[in-house]
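Hi Y.,

Following your request, here is the sequence exactly as I used it, all 136 residues.
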Amino acid sequence: MRNQSLIKDYLVRSQKRMKAVKTLFDEDSWADVVRESQEVLELTLNALLRSAAVEVPRIHDVSGVLAEEKSRLPKKIQTQLDKIIAVSKSLRRDRELAFYGSEDLTPSEFYSKEDAELAFKEVTWILELVLSEVKI
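Below is the corresponding structure, written out as tokens. Let me know if you'd prefer a different format.
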């Protein structure tokens, strides 16, 4: 069974978070754009899986589940799934690093405007694609 209210909630929250990501971008907070873009993507992909009646694991990167359940996803998304999976894996790798950094990496010094632009562009594209294909 699909909880339509939960699917809608994920998508509405994704859209609202994109506004926050835009604000972070306008503030030149590149590391935060990368981190928050990952969270938008996570909510968006969880909505996509739930809309296909797929149990969503509590993990940050659902690309493995997307690949396993490809046949249950909308056709238009199936044709773009390799790119969606690549974006999910890439942003997942950056999730903690963009937020916490490490002894030899300061997020605000490491992430560039180009990194932020790419994350923002890719997540915007995926969100718009999912919104066009998920009927709630």
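The longest helix spans residues 4-26.

Thanks again,
Q.
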